[in-house]
Each structure stands twice: as structure tokens, then as C-alpha cells.
Amino acid sequence: GENVEQHPSTLSVQEGDSAVIKCTYSDSASNYFPWYKQELGKGPQLIIDIRSNVGEKKDQRIAVTLNKTAKHFSLHITETQPEDSAVYFCAASPKGSGGSNYKLTFGKGTLLTVNP
Amino acid sequence: KAGVTQTPRYLIKTRGQQVTLSCSPISGHRSVSWYQQTPGQGLQFLFEYFSETQRNKGNFPGRFSGRQFSNSRSEMNVSTLELGDSALYLCASSKTGDTQYFGPGTRLTVL
Questions:
Q1: Quick check: bond before A94 cis, omega within 30?
Q2: In 3D, which of A51, A44, A74, A75 has the Cα closest to residue A62?
């Protein structure tokens, strides 16, 4: 089955700096890669996702890149703010039967702390 | 548009008991997935339902089961609870199974 490795496990940055979180996956059949942000006491919140036919996607201060050959994908957060502090999870999923993805395999998470 | 709702939010049970958790997906979403989140194992996939049919199942024992109703609401059941079942149980809904939106979770404590 799929295995997703996520690094680093903790990341501390100064407000205004950039943060980068990296993930690798093992199953070449995976073609959908979402990123989630989880704050204390809440469920994971989808912040951005990318599909295998796209190499990069950007949404304001957040960007995700995908290298299918190397099976790597990364989350980039620019101009970090204290409210970006949370645990971030990457995930990978294959396209299931019937044309939809139905099984996310998650990385272990990265605790991001943005210091004011 | 209302998000995914899960009830109850907190639950305390003792070993050997059984528990049923409920999930109401976003209106119009037909896919519901369940995940277990623990500090040691992280987020792990339990199963996914689409139009009342289980489409995929994770590597959990048969004590974990689920179902989905015609209105897309879903329940998961854990029988013969063990201490190791203490976790945050998360439900995620999706229109087709693609982009998944999570609820706040049910925190289950087994004593």
C-alpha cells in the first residue's frame, strides 16, 4: 500500500519568513495530493491540493509543487503569520474505481510554529 | 453551506462496551470516509462509503464497522472496546470521493 513520509516533524520560523514542508510517497498510482491544516481541538482543514497532471499550484501565500518522477511534493508558505501556527499534514491518494479518490494516506504531520 | 457535523463530540466508555458515532456530510455530498487519529499512528483510514455502499476499507479489525443511510449520513460502530481504541475519530465528506472535507471529530476515551 501507499506510504507517505513527511519532514520535518517540527518547524519554527520567524514571522514573515517562509516555511517549507516536504513529503514523499511510494505508490506511483497516487495522483491526488492534498494538504491539511489542523488547529488544536479541530478537524483537519483542506488548504490546497494538487493533481498529478499539474506541477505547481498557488493560492495567495500558499503553494504546492509536485515532482512525479521523484515522488516528492512540497508545501510552501510565504510571509508566515502567527495564525499559520498549526499542524500540517500531507496526504496522497490513488484514483479509485468509478473515477474517484477514496483513500487518503497521511504523513505524520509537521508542527509549524510562527514566532512573532 | 453547513460543514460536516459529528456527534457526539466527546465520549467516555469502558473496555468491552460498544460505541456508535454519527456523521452528517455536507449537503449534496455522497461520499463519507472515516479516519482514526492517534498521537502514535497519526491519521489512518478506516473505510469509505458512497451511496450506501462500502467502497474501500483500511486495515482495522472487524470490530470496526460502518454504514451509510440513504440521506448520506453515516455511522461507525466499534464493538468490544479496547484501551487502544481511544482516539479522535474523524469523518470526511466529498461529492464524489475526491476532495474531502473533515468534521471536528469525536474524541473517544476508553477507560
A1: no
A2: A75
- Contact assignment for B97 to A49 by CB distance below 8 Å: no
Alpha-carbon torsion angle A50, A51, A52, A58, nearest 10: -30
Measure the CA angle with vertex A90, ends A88 and A94; round to 5°: 160
Q: Is the pLDDT of residue A99 over 60?
A: no
β pairing state of B31-38 and B87-94: antiparallel
Nine-digit cell at B63? Answer: 470490530
Measure CB to CB from residue B42 to each of A45, A97, A109 and give the nearest one.
Answer: A109
CB < 8 Å to A107, chain B: 42
| Sign of the dihedral defined by the CA atoms of residues A78, A12, A35, B3, in that order | negative
Q: Which residues of A touch B (CB under 8 A)?
A: 32, 34, 36, 41-46, 49, 89, 91, 96-109
pLDDT of A34 higher than 70: yes
Q: Which residue of A has its CA nearest to B54?
A: A102
Kindly list the distances between the CA atom of residue B29 and the CA atoms of A61, A104, B12, in Å, as whole numbers in the listed order: 29, 17, 30
- Find, among B15, B95, B2, B111, the residue nearest to B63 by Cα: B15
Enumerate residue ranges in chain B where pLDDT < 50.
Answer: none
- Tell me the per-residue pLDDT of A43-93, one tens digit each, with 9 for 90 and over: 999 999 998 887 999 999 999 999 999 999 999 999 999 999 999 999 998
